[in-house]
Amino acid sequence: MHIMDRTSLIAELNSRGLSEGTGSGPLYKRLAQALTGLIQEGLLKSGTALPGERDLAGALQIGRVTVRTAYRDLLASGVIESRHGSGTFVSQHVERIEQPLWRLSSFSADMRSRGREPAARILSRTISAPAPEESFLLGLGLDEPVLRLDRLRLADGQPLAIERAVVPIKFLGEDAVSEGSLYDALAAKGFKPVRAQQRLTAVTLDPTSASILTVKAGAPALLIERVSRLADQRVVEYTRSHYRGDAYDFVAELRIGDDL
């Protein structure tokens, strides 16, 4: 455990009146409340492994059914999560990020501006002819190769988004871009995008994407499709990104018209 070892956890729970015949209300509810309190106080951090039902029941000298019922309530409320084959853990909660829609910037730059450490993990990287839709969006001939780069974007080690970028090879070169900023790589070649159009759609995550983002299958997400252009209007990038719905708030600034 991050802050409390098993001995400290048991001692803390016992100090909160978790024994038969003491306190008021059902014992399982008091156990659930005690665990919730430890999480809210920061003593049990996100991702902390909790003792198994049998282990915790024996240490507290209470019934295993009591522990199972307390865990069931905490699972239902999302306070803890069960990982198949691994056990029970304090749920992973991410700090929500407010992302303005009126400014074009890279994921890496956004995270650094918030004091967080950005990272990228390559899921796949291929170079091939564009698909018909990509050819149309990028203004390319079907014989002009593109780089397709699928990456998991992280901040402070926390997975936040799955990004697929499609960029004409003529703007990057075949060896460019790995885990750093795509926009930095484009800028280094003299092709930094200056404007973009984005479309946001509410979606749910398929099992594979959810597993990569460490959330449950069917969890809400935001699909953002972006087409970025150079100053001369050439399209330099087409990106489809799935952002965790529990991590992002996208904000737009609106101007009130004179006719209102």
Automatic annotation (TrEMBL):
<dbReference type="GO" id="GO:0003677">
    <property type="term" value="F:DNA binding"/>
</dbReference>
<dbReference type="InterPro" id="IPR011663">
    <property type="entry name" value="UTRA"/>
</dbReference>
<dbReference type="Pfam" id="PF00392">
    <property type="entry name" value="GntR"/>
</dbReference>
<keyword id="KW-0805">Transcription regulation</keyword>
<keyword id="KW-0238">DNA-binding</keyword>
<dbReference type="InterPro" id="IPR050679">
    <property type="entry name" value="Bact_HTH_transcr_reg"/>
</dbReference>
<dbReference type="GO" id="GO:0003700">
    <property type="term" value="F:DNA-binding transcription factor activity"/>
</dbReference>
<feature type="domain" description="HTH gntR-type">
    <location>
        <begin position="25"/>
        <end position="93"/>
    </location>
</feature>
<dbReference type="InterPro" id="IPR036388">
    <property type="entry name" value="WH-like_DNA-bd_sf"/>
</dbReference>
<protein>
    <submittedName>
        <fullName>GntR family transcriptional regulator</fullName>
    </submittedName>
</protein>
<dbReference type="InterPro" id="IPR036390">
    <property type="entry name" value="WH_DNA-bd_sf"/>
</dbReference>
<dbReference type="GO" id="GO:0045892">
    <property type="term" value="P:negative regulation of DNA-templated transcription"/>
</dbReference>
<dbReference type="Pfam" id="PF07702">
    <property type="entry name" value="UTRA"/>
</dbReference>
<dbReference type="InterPro" id="IPR000524">
    <property type="entry name" value="Tscrpt_reg_HTH_GntR"/>
</dbReference>
<keyword id="KW-0804">Transcription</keyword>
<dbReference type="InterPro" id="IPR028978">
    <property type="entry name" value="Chorismate_lyase_/UTRA_dom_sf"/>
</dbReference>
